Amino acid sequence: xxxxxxxxxxxxxxxxxxxxxxxxxxxxxxxxxxxxxxxxxxxxxxxxxxxxxxxxxxxxxxxxxxxxxxxxxxxxxxxxxxxxxxxxxxxxxxxxxxxxxxxxxxxxxxxxxxxxxxxxxxxxxxxxxxxxxxxxxxxxxxxxxxxxxxxxxxxxxxxxxxxxxxxxxxxxxxxxxxxxxxxxxxxxxxxxxxxxxxxxxxxxxxxxxxxxxxxxxxxxxxxxxxxxxxxxxxxxxxxxxxxxxxxxxxxxxxxxxxxxxxxxxxxxxxxxxxxxxxxxxxxxxxxxxxxxxxxxxxxxxxxxxxxxxxxxxxxxxxxxxxxxxxxxxxxxxxxxxxxxxxxxxxxxxxxxxxxxxxxxxxxxxxxxxxxxxxxxxxxxxxxxxxxxxxxxxxxxxxxxxxxxxxxxxxxxxxxxxxxxxxxxxxxxxxxxxxxxxxxxxxxxxxxxxxxxxxxxxxxxxxxxxxxxxxxxxxxxxxxxxxxxxxxxxxxxxxxxxxxxxxxxxxxxxxxxxxxxxxxxxxxxxxxxxxxxxxxxxxxxxxxxxxxxxxxxxxxxxxxxxxxxxxxxxxxxxxxxxxxxxxxxxxxxxxxxxxxxxxxxxxxxxxxxxxxxxxxxxxxxxxxxxxxxxxxxxxxxxxxxxxxxxxxxxxxxxxxxxxxxxxxxxxxxxxxxxxxxxxxxxxxxxxxxxxxxxxxxxxxxxxxxxxxxxxxxxxxxxxxxxxxxxxxxxxxxxxxxxxxxxxxxxxxxxxxxxxxxxxxxxxxxxxxxxxxxxxxxxxxxxxxxxxxxxxxxxxxxxx
Length: 798
Known about the structure:
Signal peptide: 1-24
Low-confidence stretches: 1-34
Mean pLDDT: 92
Number of strands: 45
Shape: globular
Pfam family, one: TonB_dep_Rec_b-barrel
Distance between the termini: 42 Å
Keywords: Cell outer membrane, Ion transport, Iron, Iron transport, Membrane, Receptor, Signal, TonB box, Transmembrane, Transmembrane beta strand, Transport
Structural class: mainly beta
Helix content: under 10%
Largest sheet: 25 strands, antiparallel
Family: Belongs to the TonB-dependent receptor family.
Membrane topology: Multi-pass membrane protein
Number of helices: 6
């Protein structure tokens, strides 16, 4: 493990590197080396019209496939770790990541103030839907051309619910007749994945691109069963006309991947005997199915092997035409059919075996192995887990989105008029149960509770249909529809070397539907004709008493920016922005009134941001620096703690990125310093003045690569300084540096071999924990980065 001392060493090294502005790019000529961070490229994300980065007044970055290869991501969210200003907690597996940008808070989960897009349109309208984070429905594969991002800036007016920024995953469109097939195999863990893509011209005016992946394997933490299985296919076809183009998109995603929730470990991240915090998981072959009552009260069975299972079928249309007389019209449309499952396990309590047994069966109760090799024997360990199944069916997350804009150009000025409209369904069912398990990482067995008089208080390890330890909170069903309408206007002009731009957007929306909580009743769940102890009180959906959802919202966003081209290689910019984020499903079960309405202050969270920065390049050196300040309101709800939040935050900081070439070496890196504070809290004033949970003073990413005739080798360092587990600022996690390594070699002109190592030094790095203070037994429930995983890839390009 690289501890906080070595983290400080890395930071000091980073400071030297940043002061020298070391950063890498994928250029092959002197001209592109001079533009190592793409200051000459045209950015299309978060701007009304494509704009040269050197002329723009926003902080914008791009990530290429080569950058991704060096950083060795194991999930889509891990690909975002190298974007400046982004703190990505991607320890949940293939999805369910928490993403914070420039100190804007992550009070519950997901990416609340950030919008993740595919080809310019959002994956979901809300980035923090409970058990439906946007990254669950995203897979990055060989069809990806680049990833663009903006932080702050015009994101407030360029997209709905995105005041913190936008990440846009842009697809290849067949601009060159080429393709590839690659196969990746895990060398120290079970994974096998094949990626493919091909694009070509059909004739002089039409081209296409198609690709995707298929994969299978256990994942980086062995659960005892095949946990990752599925794939994706994406395709697009483009028809070009004399005055523009029309492009049709298609995507099908059906992928099952294991979802990791907080696991038992000691407060410093070290492992409990029998459970390795870096490589083990609570999942087990001894718990593959769960019996529950569905939304309509029918007995059904859930499969733990579904994990996070997004099922997406979407069709999109993109068109752009020059109408003449300097008028340009653009339109993007997408309809998505989205559903799936979220199945995982979380320890609700890790503690004394006897006390857990007594709390269920009364004094003198004991635990017996319910299954596994020791089934029927007395459980002898002093430690056991009370485990809840997060069993969620995403019935309908479908959406329809359209963004149309009309631009008029006048010499050095442009005015854009746009109208954005969207519908988002959020229809899901929670069906949670309670189990007892041994604390073990290799196929843990379930445990039964037997009272002193011989009465059994559990059925094959299940002691409750529901979660009585959490007040039977979480048998829930809700079916709500959200509509968004947003007219916007953006204008830009140039006065010599001075560029000015401003934009205004008004978002309005409404929510309608219903939701229902839990009710207890006696049910013969296994249909054996006998009512067991767990069947005496079974949680089900209270369909007799549904609650109404019927509220609307509206908020104005604006952004004003200026960029001054001091010289060909130096520019300075500044911006002031105000934006908002409408709240959706996390208002249910506490913030919605009896008539379905919501208080105005609860329906929308507003964000004010100020930023200024410089862009500079000299020979092989490029630098992009941005100072920022933000004020944020937030209403939120956390499923695991059952807590609501009503707060205000402030954050200030500095974001640096740079690139540099030295002969055959190139270097890329970024560092973000953030000073964030809770400045008001209506529900818990004791935390006022504290640092928001999991907010680090410094986050950083460094990449270095050596290029030779037949290939390249590279290393990527991703790190964070110390953070607090919770807002009470008691339990503190050490900072860590994760080192990833990459090497590739061209066997022939078309065939290459690559080796990727994620977390080379097997570092422990805690990203989150349920506890805010160290308990008496020093055991917390937390998520750490995965231990070392190594893959080899063979790729054929044609």
